[in-house]
Amino acid sequence: MSLIGKPVPPFSLADDQGGTVTPATLAGAWAVLYAYPKDATPGCTTEACDFRDSWSRVKAAGARVYGISRDSVASHQKFRAKQELPFPLLSDPDKTLLAPLGAWGKKVMYGKETEGIIRSTFLVDPKGVIRHVWPKVSVKGHVEDVLETLEGLKKG
User: Fold this and answer.
1) For residues 93 and 107, what is the distance between their CA atoms, to the nearest angstrom?
2) Rounded to 5 degrees, what are φ and ψ at 24?
3) Which of 10, 16, 126, 137 could form a disulfide with 76 if both were Cys (CB 3.0 to 4.6 A apart)?
4) Domain assignments of the chain as residue spans, ordered by start
5) pLDDT tens digits for 43-92?
6) If you classify domain 14-155 with CATH, what class do you get?
7) Catalytic residue numbers?
8) pTM attached to this predicted model
């Protein structure tokens, strides 16, 4: 089932700054929601830092970025501070948003099937509608692809 053209699913998640993020929070600006498996792991750190290092382009595009994992708010606070991330990290321990987005499910790690977060990214327009989905993200070059897609969609 494609999520493109559908509204972002209802959710209410705690961020690492003590706030709560909901679909209403996203309204009015483009939003990049990226689901990642675990704070402070190599691939997840690379992906977060790529968004950080591209922050001037993200801001120029008028977008907001939100990282989402099942990690605790405390874990997110440490990870964000250590990596100097300019965007919030959302804690979704109950898969409130991860599951309906299809970012939770079966995956193979080191030859073994397991259930977990499937690294994926969702581009949401200012009206709260999902405009692009990257399932099963490969970290290298991903942020560049997200920004190019965002810039293209904004041009129409």
Assistant:
1) 18
2) -65, -35
3) 16
4) 14-155
5) 899 999 999 999 999 999 999 999 999 999 999 999 999 999 999 999 99
6) alpha beta
7) 44
8) 0.94
